[in-house]
What we know:
Elements: E1 2-6, H1 11-20, E2 26-30, H2 47-59, E3 66-75, H3 95-105, E4 113-124, E5 127-139, E6 155-157, H4 170-176, H5 178-193
Parallel strand pairs: 1-2, 1-3
Antiparallel strand pairs: 3-4, 4-5, 5-6
Helix pairs in contact: 4-5
The protein binds inosinic acid.
Amino acid sequence: MTTLIFATSNAHKVEEIKAFFADTPYTIQSLLDFPDIPEAPEPFDTFHQNAESKAKFVQQYTNGMVIADDSGLVVDALNGQPGVFSKRYSNEGTAEANNVKLLSNMKGLSNRTARFVCVFAIVDQKGTQYIEGVCEGNIATEYSGQGGFGYDPIFLPTDFIGRSMAELSMAEKNSISHRGRALQQFKKFLLKHI
Ligand code: IMP
């Protein structure tokens, strides 16, 4: 059995990734399994650079392949914000405060197009490879749904008209989400490389 180490301690992401690999021979580990590894810095202004630096940081403490994701919400009317700063968009840095700030900054704007972006950096002895997944949608004017995390209650994915990301089941979210799409490509990558 091959173990894949995902360099994240976000329990929601870990749950999505484990659900995605449930019917495969891979065992998934995350930073939740390595509590002694300190939080990796994310100092850059691109998803690619942050993902690679997180993966390389964690690789120092483990053996084998490390996969790190950097993800976020890119809003066209806000010139791409919150983007790489999605996690800490508001001063508080909670999902609630981030959503309040985003809805307030979008007040009265008619262009509400946005996308979730997820970049995986896969780091092993051979170097770094990248995989990218994108999920198109619009920013809602109000909250709906209890599922998911982060900006899900105010994101209306184009693939499920009339429902927010937080109103999708985990299987539905994984079938269209930025991370789900990156994971689908990653599965193909694994078939070729392992
Ligand atoms: P990261 O952990 O640095 O990649 O930060 C990602 C941030 O982007 C999260 O804290 C959320 O605010 C947001 N985000 C990423 N993926 C999702 C998602 O699937 N749903 C909602 N928000 C997300």
